[in-house]
Structures are given as C-alpha cells and as structure tokens.
Design a protein that fits this description.
With 450 residues, the protein is of the alpha/beta class. It folds into two domains: 9-179, no CATH class; 217-446, no CATH class. Helix content is 54%, strand content 7%. Helix 2 packs across helix 5 (140-153), helix 14 (337-357) runs antiparallel to helix 15 (362-378) and helix 15 (362-378) runs antiparallel to helix 19 (437-446).
C-alpha cells in the first residue's frame, strides 16, 4: 500500500458523490428502508442546527471503503479514477437519492449504475418517494440548508486501496473484528457527539472507561431494556443496535413539553422515563450501576433480608463468604438456567421498585422475591419466554398473574406493593417439579403459611 496515497481522507458528501464510483456485482442488495432514511434526514437536520451554533462545525457520517483500479497511464487525473464500492453502499445510495431530490439537475457517474436485484429496485423506489414526500412539506430555505450541509458540513472518512483482497481485509477489520459493535458502544459514540463542552466530555469518558464493558452490557440487556418493555406490558427481547433509539434521549434544546419536563427533572432518573442526551447518558449509566451495587449490598448486610439472601444463594455454587455484590453474583449462579432467570426477575423487580420509591420496605421486598420465585415453583422447564409472559401478566396458567413491573411503575405509594396480594396456594401444596419443593416450602414459611 502506498502510505501517502492510501491513508484515510476526509471528503464532503458532495465530493464523494462527484467521483467516478461504480457498484460492483458482488455487492449485497440495497436494504435501507424508510426508518433508515428518516434517521439520516434527522441527523442532517441536527447537523444544520449545530452548524448555526458553532463556527466551522463538521459532522461525520460514517466510513466508505473504495477499491481504486490501477491505470496504465501515470498521468491520469483524479476525476478519471474509477472507484468500486467495497463498504458504504447503503449510505452512499441514500445520499444520492437525497441529493437528487434537492438538486434534480445533479449528475454523477453513479447514476448510470444498473440494478437487477428486485429488493434493491424496490427500496430505491420507496426511499426516493419517502424523501420527496418529506421535502414537499418544507420551504426553500430548508432545502437550501440541506444542500449546503451535503456540500460543507457532512463529512465521510474515505479509505481507498489498490488491491481488492486488501479492500476486503480492511472491510473485515473495520466492520467486524470478530463481532458487531455492541449497542452500548454505539450509544456512547452518539452521546459523546451531543456534548460540546470539552471538560464535560473528558469526565464522561472517564466515567465510561472506569467500568467493565461486560457490566455495561448486562445493565442494559438484563435490567434497563427488559424493565422498559415490561413496564409497558410488552414482551422484551435481546437488546440490539435496532433498539438504541430508546436511549438516545431528548436534545437539551428541545422545545417539546415532555422535553422541558425531563430537563427540569434532571438529574433524577427513572428507568421508564427518557433522559436528556449527552452527559446525562453517562450519569445515568453510572447511577444505575451504583444502584444495583447498593441493592445487592443491602441484601447482604441487612439482617432483615437474611432469609431471602439464604434462598438466593442456596441453589448456586457453595462459597465461603458472601460479603460483596460480586460475591453475591457468583453465589447466585446456578446450573439451572430457569433459576438464573427467576433470580434476575427478582433483581429487576427490586431495581424497579427502589428506583421509584427509594426504600427497602421489608414486606415489599418479600413480595417481590416471592412473586419472582413462584414462577420457578410453577413451571417444570423455565425459559425466557415464560419470564416475558409472567412479567407482563399474560400467562394465566401460573399461580400469580399480576403484571408486577407495570404495577410498580404506576403505584403512587410503596405500600401498594408491600400490600399486594399474592397467591401461594398450589394444588396439594406441591411444586411443579419435585426438586423445587424445598423452595416452595421456604416461600410458604417466608410468608407466614408455615
């Protein structure tokens, strides 16, 4: 590789579109839909607003990898160079559709591309229609601002190579590195971009880097994301990049009524409420990681919870001592996937309860523990699908059918949870599986039935 010629370059979107670019036959179909186009337009709109506040503002919109075919003529001009797209086709074609809407007279080599794939043709047609409809409701000044952003504000990192094999190697290293970027990594990048104060940005990065990536991943996947869904009586799934919009928050300068309310409430966080974008995201992550630590420490140290603590660790590996949240997590692990699901459901419920009321009422904690563990008693083989249905109160075959998470998030007082009625009576007082009979007996005793 020619280190001088092949180093990354920064091009404006207009400059990129003006190049002699082709779409190779090996490229996958164009799959961006209306949601992607809407997000792109909103991103550009945001860059325009930021550009009005900050002189010489630039907005990075991704990376494009191009394969530059070698030419025999050493005197070739830059505009004669032919580039094949290796990575970035989705964004590139979307920008072209946008440019054509803003400037119908725009000409470039990419317009001569021929597509035979039906998916590509349909998505290009649908997205072009969506863009036209969106811009039909804006004035000429807005269109002019968008056109100006493509020319002066929006920047693309362009990597060009001379060998096709090298291009694919670069594609692999840029896009996979063995895995896709985690959703929380994407959120980190998004919210850092929302911080315009250098000291605040440094502070946010320090907070983030002080935490284990695995712990941040578990916070969103095991607690925050499920609770967000369950509170609305919706089933939860894996937390992926497709769901990160939930945690992009509200722009600090937003004039919406709900945004003003959230702005006034900060720094008081609630799991089921949006945050202000930027530094609040990093504060929020720090806040809930500390809250989880404090909850588990309370279960360890408070003698009132000794019976619950003993039951939590009973079906896990035997450990010499449980004095810290980390040791509690180790002690709570089980060979039984179902028991692990039940324990995590309890911790979710307790986090949701403490987040709202900020107390450790003994009766409320007992009720939440009993509710979560009765599912383990009720079912022979406990998987996440059952957890989902139970958490939102949709499964009628179990002893309890209360949507407890939703009840917590709508309760006015903590006594509505501590006074909640739970049913512990099963047929013949027997657990669904014999190995959980001991747990069932313990729950009956914990609640004064024995």
């Amino acid at each position: 590789m020619d280190s001088q010629k092949d180093r990354p370059e920064i091009w404006s979107v207009d400059h990129l579109l003006a190049q002699n670019i082709i779409i190779p036959s090996y490229q996958r179909p164009y799959k961006w839909g209306n949601k992607n186009i809407r997000e792109l337009i909103l991103d550009i709109q945001k860059s325009i607003e930021e550009g009005r506040k900050y002189p010489n503002f630039k907005y990075r919109v991704g990376t494009v990898i191009l394969y530059r075919e070698s030419k025999a003529e050493p005197y070739e001009r830059e505009n004669d160079t032919e580039y094949a797209v290796v990575d970035g086709q989705q964004r590139l074609l979307s920008f072209l559709l946008l440019k054509l809407c803003l400037d119908p007279n725009f000409k470039c080599e990419l317009l001569s591309a021929k597509f035979s794939d039906k998916v590509t043709k349909q998505n290009l047609h649908d997205n072009a229609l969506y863009i036209r409809e969106w811009f039909s409701s804006v004035d000429d000044e807005t269109k002019k601002a968008f056109n100006g952003a493509l020319k002066d504000t929006l920047e693309v990192v362009v990597l060009t190579v001379n060998e096709l094999s090298e291009a694919f190697q670069l594609f692999d290293s840029q896009n996979t590195r063995g895995r896709e970027l985690d959703p929380h990594d994407l959120l980190k990048a998004y919210h850092l971009r929302e911080i315009h104060d250098e000291e605040a940005m440094k502070c946010a990065v320090l907070k983030w880097e002080s935490k284990e990536p695995k712990a941040i991943h578990e916070l969103f996947s095991n607690y925050l994301f499920p609770l967000w869904n369950w509170s609305k009586r919706r089933k939860s799934g894996s937390f992926t990049a497709a769901e990160i919009d939930l945690y992009k928050g509200i722009e600090e300068t937003s004039d919406y009524t709900y945004a003003k309310r959230a702005n006034k409430a900060k720094p008081y966080f609630q799991i089921v409420e949006p945050i202000i974008s930027g530094r609040d995201f990093f504060e929020m992550v720090d806040h809930y990681m500390q809250m989880l630590h404090d909850i588990k420490q309370e279960l360890i140290e408070n003698p009132d919870f000794a019976a619950i603590k003993a039951l939590l660790i009973k079906w896990g590996p035997k450990v010499e001592q449980v004095n810290t949240p980390v040791e509690l997590d180790v002690a709570c692990r089980s060979w039984s996937t179902g028991m692990n699901h039940a324990r995590n459901l309890f911790f979710c419920a307790l986090l949701c309860y403490y987040d709202r009321f900020h107390n450790f009422d003994l009766m409320a904690v007992k009720k939440l523990f009993t509710w979560a563990m009765m599912l383990r008693v009720d079912i022979y083989s406990l998987g996440y699908d059952s957890i989902n249905l139970y958490a939102i109160g949709e499964e009628k075959a179990y002893t309890n059918t209360k949507p407890v998470i939703s009840l917590i998030t709508t309760a006015r007082r903590h006594t509505e949870i501590s006074g909640m009625t739970l049913d512990l009576k099963r047929t013949d007082n027997k657990a669904r599986a014999e190995k959980w009979q001991q747990l069932y007996d313990a729950l009956l005793q914990l609640n004064g039935y024995k």
